[in-house]
Design goal:
7 strands; Heat Shock Protein 90; alpha+beta; seven-stranded mixed beta sheet; 2 domains
Length: about 350
């Protein structure tokens, strides 16, 4: 009986049919095929447990007592008791097996859930170790490179101030100055990634931060016609965060969304509260990210941009984590991406 599974509807149909056939044969043969009553009783017990077995046994007993023939009442009573015992025994055994199976399934589900949590924690630990190692390397390289870079930029500035330079040399000096400025910005990103400053927490209303981010993002369109809109409910709870760092994170996400969006597509900055948390979503309808790359978006130096450094989202992830929040990236059902900054809501007067 172990491992036997019968669909309830099919089992009841077969059991009922078997009961009718057994009763008909018993009537036509005056009790010759009485043993066939055990079949519908067993099937009913396997489908509905001891209740189904008992019900089928009672119906079979009625058929036994009402069939024609000269069998003694005692004999018919014994047959009925045997059928009732058979239905109860099989039903009780099946119920016990079903309970054991349910317990085992519940235990397996719990173990599976625990395994998934352990796996997620393990992946998180590996990411932390990786980030720590890369952060230390980045900080050391940034400091070592910044000093000679400052010397190069200073020498270029001295040469640029001289008035007797031909246009060709002046163009070269301009290139050196611009590239020094670009490298210095890259080094700043390295240092922000390696040692982001601790957050200065304040309890704030998000609306002001969202308005600032929207205004700054609109100035960074760089010739693109990508409308930006804000969607925020009036009763949004306050959050405890570093408003300057939160603006930095959201602005980074908005600029990425604008760069990924074709002209005419809207980038939405929205906020919503749910289950004690406030989520700020940056939604675009651009080219999106390949499914295989979504889990790597927050890894340092991973980028899908042609000229990207791969540090912007890593820094944003670190800042959000320091504020006690979560940064999540999801592919939209249509096209584009949604990046969500999720922070604990702050209720009350403080």
């Amino acid at each position: 009986m172990s491992g036997m599974q019968i669909h309830p509807w099919l089992g009841r149909s077969v059991s009922g049919t078997a009961l009718i056939v057994a009763a008909a044969l018993s009537w036509l043969t005056h009790g010759t095929f009485t043993q066939l009553f055990s079949l519908p009783v067993a099937l009913a017990a396997l489908v509905d447990g001891w209740r189904g077995g008992l019900a089928a046994a009672v119906l079979s007993s009625i058929a036994v007592f009402t069939r024609p023939g000269d069998a003694a009442a005692v004999s018919r009573m014994v047959e009925s008791l045997v059928l009732v015992g058979l239905g109860l025994l099989i039903g009780l055994l099946f119920d016990r097996e079903r309970r054991q199976k349910n317990r085992l399934q519940k235990t397996a589900d719990q173990l599976s859930s625990v395994y998934e949590k352990v796996q997620a924690n393990f992946e998180g630990m590996k990411r932390v170790e990786r980030l720590s190692a890369i952060g230390q390397l980045s900080a050391g390289l940034a400091h070592e490179i910044r000093n000679p870079l400052a010397s190069i930029a200073g020498a270029a500035a001295i040469l640029q101030r001289s008035g007797n330079m031909d246009p060709k040399h002046a163009k070269c000096i301009e290139i050196i100055t611009n590239e020094c400025r670009r490298l210095n910005g890259l080094l700043t990103n390295f240092l922000n990634f390696a040692r982001p400053r601790p957050p200065r927490f304040q309890t704030i209303n998000l609306d002001s931060v969202l308005d600032n981010v929207l205004a700054l993002a609109s100035h960074g369109l760089r010739g693109k016609t990508v409308p930006c809109e804000k969607q925020s409910p009036a009763n949004l709870p306050r959050v405890e965060c570093d408003p300057e760092q939160l603006e930095q994170v959201l602005l980074n996400l908005m600029i990425n969304a604008i760069e990924a969006s074709p002209n005419g597509e809207t980038v939405t900055l929205s906020a919503a509260a749910d289950d004690g948390k406030v989520a700020v979503h940056v939604i675009d309808h651009g080219h999106g990210v390949a499914p295989a790359h979504v889990d790597r978006l927050f890894d340092p130096f991973f980028t899908t941009k042609e000229h990207g450094t791969g540090l912007g989202l890593s820094v944003a992830h670190q800042i959000t984590t320091q504020m006690g929040g979560t940064l999540v990236a999801e592919r939209n059902s249509g096209k584009g991406m949604t990046f969500s900054v999720i922070l604990p809501a702050k209720y009350g007067d403080t």
